[in-house]
Amino acid sequence: MDDVEITDVEDDNSPYRVEKAPLNNQDLSSLSLNVGELLSQYGWYLLAVTVLVYLLIQHLSKRRSSQSSSRAPQQTPQDAALVVKRQEAMEAARIKMQEELDAKADIFREKQRQQEEEKRRQKIEVWESMQQGRSYKAKPSQTAEEASSSTTGSKPKSDKKPLRSADYNPLTGQGGSSLSYRPGRRGPSSGG
Fold it and tell me: Reduced to 3 states, what is the DSSP secondary structure of residue 8?
């Protein structure tokens, strides 16, 4: 490649010859030698660094795109209307639940008031019966059903069969089972 011949045509169509000139560019040859030497010594390191830089760039670009997509997109009028509808529905549900709670509280208060009124009325009746000389235990407000339920409620039911027989006594060692425990003899085990 050192011998290059260039022919040029002039305006009068006669070939124009340039003498052979060797290409001796010292700057390019020394540069190619330096690059070759650098690659031979640090080639694997350069390749690894290049791959890491490439992967880092890919990761950052994905991260940037995911952040830009995760940011709040421009709200359209439909989205705003949907948000307003959801908020109105939530507010209506809250109001409904509060009304139910208030109704239950009113019922509870009314029951409490009735119970207090009943207690007050019973106290007045007991006081009046005491003034008339009657026993305070014989309350006129207590019905026959309440009296019968209170007396039967304290008694155990008799139709249940007992857990053990009537003749069982744990202190006598009899009853229970046919086998009984007999302790072994005391003293030396040899009989001599």
Answer: strand
- How many residues are listed for the chain in this entry? 192
First to last CA, the chain: 129
Q: What distances in angstroms separate CA 127 from CA 11, 114, 119, one per listed residue?
A: 146, 20, 12
Residues with pLDDT less than 70, the chain: 1-26, 71-75, 136-158, 173-181, 189-192
Phi, psi dihedral angles at 9 (to 5 degrees): -105, 130
Residue 122: Cβ within 10 Å count = 14
The 8-class DSSP code of residue 174 comes to B
SS3 15: strand
- Please state, in angstroms and as integers, the Cα–Cα distance from residue 139 to each residue in 22, 154, 162, following that order: 138, 20, 37
Alpha-carbon gap, residue 58 to 38, rounded angstroms = 27
Number of H helices, E strands in the chain: 3, 2
Distance from C-alpha of 134 to C-alpha of 128, rounded to nearest angstrom? 9
Two tokens at 61? 């670009």
Read off the pLDDT of residues 127-139 as tens digits, 9 standing for 90 and up: 988 888 877 665 4
Residue found under tokens 């011998």: 3
pTM (predicted TM-score): 0.31
